[in-house]
From TrEMBL:
Gene name as annotated: thiL
Keyword check for Cytoplasm: no
The PurM-like N-terminal domain, residue ranges: 25-134
Native organism taxonomy: Bacteria, Pseudomonadati, Pseudomonadota, Alphaproteobacteria, Sphingomonadales
Enzymatic reactions: thiamine phosphate + ATP = thiamine diphosphate + ADP
Record-level GO BP terms: thiamine biosynthetic process; thiamine diphosphate biosynthetic process
Residues annotated as binding Mg(2+) 3: D26, D70, D203
Residues that, per the record, bind Mg(2+) 2: D42, D70
Main enzyme class: transferase
EC number per UniProt: 2.7.4.16
GO terms, molecular function: ATP binding; magnesium ion binding; thiamine-phosphate kinase activity
Protein name per Swiss-Prot or TrEMBL: Thiamine-monophosphate kinase
Amino acid sequence: MTTESAFINILRGFAKDPAARGLLDDAAVVEIGDSCLIITHDMMAEDVHFKSNANPADVAWKLVASNLSDLAAKGASPIGVLLGFMLGDDDWDRAFAAGLEKVLGHYGVALLGGDTVSNRGDKRALGLTALGIAANRPVPSRAGAQVGDILYVTGTLGDALAGFELIDAGFDEVGPLADAFNRPQARLAEGQKLAPFVHAMMDISDGLLIDAERMATASRLGIEIDLACIPLSPAYVSYRTDSLESRMQAASWGDDYELLFCAPADARLNVDATAVGRVIAGGGLTLRNGDELVKLPPTLGYQHH
Ligand SMILES: Nc1ncnc2c1ncn2[C@@H]1O[C@H](COP(=O)(O)OP(=O)(O)O)[C@@H](O)[C@H]1O
Ligand SMILES: Cc1ncc(C[n+]2csc(CCOP(=O)(O)OP(=O)(O)O)c2C)c(N)n1
Ligand SMILES: [Mg+2]
């Protein structure tokens, strides 16, 4: 079967409009007169992104938040969404719609349209297109990192991984770890504040390591990450301990929806963020744990295949 990256590579062969940013960014950037429209689309599939017994309101939340997270990474303010929905069980559909209303209300975002089809009893796949207006131009891309920049991440990493494990093991779906998996927060305010002074920015959906490698590739430079610096929450550490292995997993599982950005070493940050590495000459990803060099793990993050 084609992998996600192989398929997107085929599309890159003809997605030549500058607004597509070479299919190398979190969103399309469409200049219209004096305005700049930011457009993104992400899907969620049953058994891939959510379990069949997941709360439909949580699925609605994550579908919206994961798309708004891509707008946040471009410093955009959201204006509306379009929903691609597959009908299934009636109670599920109604609970999803109620959850969708709540999450859109939370973010103050309009439902503008969409499309509805039957799933004929198959697994569901849901899509969402989110539209936003860039608050700052030029719109940050993944490609602007410069040698000497510091690499930062907002929030903590790995909480969604731990939350997923707890839910999968049948524990109560309450508490900060389950919330991190079910109801990620799009870092919209942070993205808008950061946009004017970052050199590069993206969100972390597939894992810090694979997403940082994508930023390095887009910027044609290298990125060095110090695993000892990765921010872990107290809840993550008490559930999964603080070891090199648990840090590596927090950096490569995904579903974090935090912002990853590069800023000059002398920049004074206007949001809470943790320095996790730096931009270096060369290419690709280099890992350290304090003073020690660490071999790259076989998989840097989540890839569909
Ligand atoms: N089916 C598709 N058709 C067109 N573009 C796609 C498709 N799938 C992914 N892309 C593009 O490839 C790039 C990388 O996608 P992805 O890794 O999913 O980004 P993100 O993590 O920000 O959602 C983005 O520019 C995205 O718009
Ligand atoms: C049932 C279930 N199993 C596994 C996962 C883990 N998982 C699935 S997709 C994914 C990465 C993010 O999804 P993707 O579609 O790659 O988002 P994008 O990069 O396009 O924003 C992760 C961590 C999950 N969320 N749910
Ligand atoms: Mg995507």
